Fold these 2 entries.
Entry 1:
Amino acid sequence: MKGSVIVDEALCKGCELCTGVCPKGVLAMSTRFSAHGYHPVELVDPEQACTGCELCSVICPEAAFTVYRERAAA
Amino acid sequence: MSVDAVVPAVAPVVSYPRSLTPVPTHYCPGCTHGIAHRLVAEVIDELGVQDITIGVASVGCSVFAYNYFALDFAQAPHGRAPALATGLKRVSPGKLVFTYQGDGDLASIGAAEILHAAARGENITVIFINNAIYGMTGGQMAPTTLPGQRTTSSPLGRDVRTQGHPLRMSELLAQVDGAAYVARRSLHDVVNIRRAKKAIRKAFEVQQQGLGFAMVELLSSCPTNWGLTAQQSLDWIRDTMVPAFPLGDFKVPGDAPEAGGSRGPSAAKAGVSTAAGNGRAPKGGR
Amino acid sequence: MARELLKGNVAFAEAAIRAGCEAYFGYPITPQTEALEHMAKRMPELGRAFVQAESEVAAINMVYGAATAGARVMSSSSSPGVSLMMEGLSYIAGSRVPVVLVDIMRGGPGLGNIAPAQSDYNQMVKGGPHGDARMIVLAPATVQELIDLTVEAFDLAERYRCITVVLADGSLGQMMEPAELPPMREPRPAAERAAWALTGAAGRDPHAITSIYLDPEEEEAYNQQLQASYRHIEQDEVRFVEEHMADARIAVVAFGTSGRLSLTAIETARAEGIRVGLIRPVTLYPFPVARLRRLAEEVDAVLVVEMNAGQMLHDVRAATEGHVPVAFFGRTGGVVPMPEEVLDAIRDLHLQLALEEAVA
């Protein structure tokens, strides 16, 4: 099942908790700065490994994640 | 990676809760207040009660909670949130009223207010954030600070001989007949966060059902004042706080006379509902 | 409505009920506990809210919560309990929600005693809640006035979005007098509560009721709003009662029970030929400054009579701006002076004036 996430960089504080829970290792801290001076996390998923498992959104203290997940074929 | 491959055809399975205001918070990076806020907002959304829920903010790091929840909110003096909630609920019985309190607010200056709100079986929901320290004022000892834990007012580590022992509020309040639901959960990992959300939902449902006082204590982090990273803080909760503050249900509806029912001399039911293995002795009859 | 023999504490509690008070939160404290007990019986009968709180600290915060919901709400207490309420009162004043508080004063400081006193004047009129907060303070002298002012207190509190205090003493709370209660006014339906109230944000933006303004300039702007409301109160709500002032050369200024017993002394003094009158402030805040300022042109001396060590005295001195001598007679500690004592003080002042005139 394919999934994807979008991170709201206006909310992300670069706490890195999501990188510790992602089972596919597709979240990484960027080196750029957000408007608030944090290094926001970003989805780095060239092989489309993200399954939309939601773990990142569960651990995120900023509710910064919007998670998408394909519905299984009927 | 291309998000477009998935986004267009599918609505998000997780998105920003409606009951949260979409603004950055002042909480420190990794602070579990953010998780707790999100869980409360998600529960309110799922129950569909955003329009009838009123929150009471307390004093602590979460003093500005009213800026973060898209709900009507009152701001209470330190410790007094359960009293404000009582007044609010008594004149607005059709609304859902909750307080959001830290350990200093609830267990120190507010100890009388929370005890008596529970004793009255006040039909409110209390979200109790226990991070074993005073965050807002810079890291002093809290009533929940652990023995030996260093804080700015216990710089040599909490000495129980002169500075007392920590309070286990869930266990204490569960003993009060008016308390209908008292549970302790933790926010230190995904599994526990999901369990915490279920408990928060139950605490609001207990209010909806008019069963009495409901509280969920959430073991939480304070990376800044603990001097740890966000991840290390969650691990500290798991390794050090959970053994001292056991997780579980200390009171569930059915353990106690219902709020508003006639209360004859009570013979408390023997046996207790609790998560496995916390070693608490069952209540005897009174 | 018929006149009935009513105890002060019961009278103000029932008056509040007749004014549509929806919630009462309090704590037992002598000499006002009968009010709590009356509310404990009546409020549940009427389906309204009553809680005996765990302390006055909790009680005033329950009042605060109910006030944020837009309900008519009150508490009552006595001096030591009112001290406990000061934090809550400041928050209430700082968030501009309407609240009524009845203070039945007793001897102090500290635990003191349960005898009548007027020694909370400074606390309620000058000090009280921390910060630049004022409360309207009404001072009844009879059970009827206690009833009437309690009813008005709710309207004043809502009109100005402030705290209105009914400041009485233990003798008024305990005495029984014939008085008339107003007809019952039903509480406002919940759907008609004020637009600013916390009612659940259905179909509108959420409201936050708070007294926090972290930015000092925002806090100042808020304080300016508060001050503006206080100027309106000062302009429009001053009340006082005058007796025998038309020919007076001495003005007794006294409030509440002191005013009442001073009138007895004044009438005896007048029978002796002393030209003395009474000004009895009914609003202690707003203080009748303009009326007192004119005294310099009317009388040769002022005698302030209080059941304290001299509290309203300073407001009288400030209002008269040094243009007329202001003497003081007071008893402290819960002692209620006999009219004869006030009469002696009037006679002394009269004699003093006569001597000064003779010498001049």
Entry 2:
Amino acid sequence: MTTKKDDRGGLWVLAEQHQGVLAEVGLELLGKARELADQGGFQVTAVLLGDRVKGLADELIAAGADQVLAAEDPALEPYHLLPYTQVITDLIKEHQPEILLIGATALGVELAPRAAARLGAGLSAHCIDLQLDDQGRLLQVVPGWGGGVLATITCPDHRPQMATVMPGVMKSRGDPQRQGQVIEAAVDLPQDQPGPRVIEVSRREPQGLPLEKAEIVVAGGWGVGSAEKWSLVEELAELLDGAVGATRPPLDEGWAGEDQMIGQSGKTVRPKLYIGLGISGMMHHVVGMDQSEFVVAVNQDPQAAIFEVCDLGLVADLTELLPILITEIKKLKGSD
Amino acid sequence: MKRIIACVKPVPDPKHWDRVSLDPETMTLRREGIPNVVNPLDRQAVEAALQIKEALGGEVVLLSMAPPFAASTIREMLAMGADRAVLLSDHLFAGSDTLATSRILAAGVKQIGAFDLILCGNMTLDGSTAQVPSQLAELLDIPNLMHITKIEWPDPNLCRLTQRIENGQIVWEASPPLLISVVKEINKPRYISFLGIIEAEKKELAVWSNEVLKIEPKLLGLAGSPTKMAGLTIRRSRRAKEILTGEAEDLARALAQRLVRKGFL
């Protein structure tokens, strides 16, 4: 019999799933984990919790996992915080991974701190970059003060080194040829779980092009001014085959929906073209769009902070500019 | 309901964050002269606590870990209607990460005594980690739920909580003891009345140092924090920042042309 390779010291990624559908962020984190693992000589393990979810393993291996550790139990579907915390911390105690990455989703931001507290491990939130230092330790780059400051966090003395990352920050990559193995984890949960009980789950199908996937994002802020003018933002986005994003005020005004918010407490986008309309450029927002390739900003205040973080800025009144811009683009598209 | 604890935190006023600078010698942030305000979401937490008290009775106790200057910010939340406040303050607490902070808050909760509910804002503006609610609940060994947009009480021992998730929501049923962290849409915090301010002056605001909490010093501050700050940089943009001014018509044409040249049209 061959000796089983010691699986301690690996790089783990939580593969979040709901009712058999993987969350995109887990695949994105596997992409980053693969890159770090190749550099630091780690084994990448995707940790999958749920009920009868092993079928998702191929997708996780293609996304970069060397192995999939599947913990299956009816008590793990749908997600409940306490059994999830118990299973993942038990697995960590058994296998002692070096690093654990978790998506900063509604589930992840609830679970990661609870698990870290149980383990006494260090956890950094909403990392925008992850690197390894020369000793193979994880450097976690996090925005602070609304994104105006970047801090590099390390966890020198505790394991695993834990970090959460917002969806959209890392890029997933698939290689269907990749091989990996699936390991079934023993789960021992009592039938009657303590804690809150799910009464009802409702998920809407997201409408149109998801913001995180759009190659062009047209985002509006408070400066757009009214629901009527917001429709011009939407029209511009449609003309460019882009998606519509927003800062917080348009949500409060009811012009835009919660899933359109870009920024620290919303989504992270990295389109080829970002156009910010009537956006002041508070760091809360900027941290969610700063990785865009080309950034255009329109604001009537020449002092607006958005002009400090754009490639091309137009000092203009949107009420005047937008209708002309839309007409111009229609003309250009018509002459194709 | 006997007792509801609402966690509050003074944070530097975000309106003045552009005045934050970096001290190159110590790698720490200079934040002198930046006034403190109550972390915005904590007002929603206090409002939620007050609404539960009005419906089901009990007292609302504010809990904060902050330097002594935070007392005036906490007094403001007493003026909103909370009954009393506990401020955990000690130089040993300085430099605590979320886990060490949660340890201190958990010790404060235990010192306050029996409770039914703990309410928190989902995140604070300064750190924005959103980690303390779950960590505090774990250290107290009680369940918790985040991103709560609605709290209802079908009966006094059972609450129905609506939780916001990606593209939807989950409705939960739970019984105290429980820690709930709330998001902005849960309520509209009440205005502070003049009478409230007068009454707040008479309310108890206890300041507890580690002599009261008696936590081992190695579990506090930098020593007790598993995460360490290895570096700090002020973010600067490397973008071209080509700024055009002029007539709207010319600007619109210039932008459209640029979009064509860059291949977006």
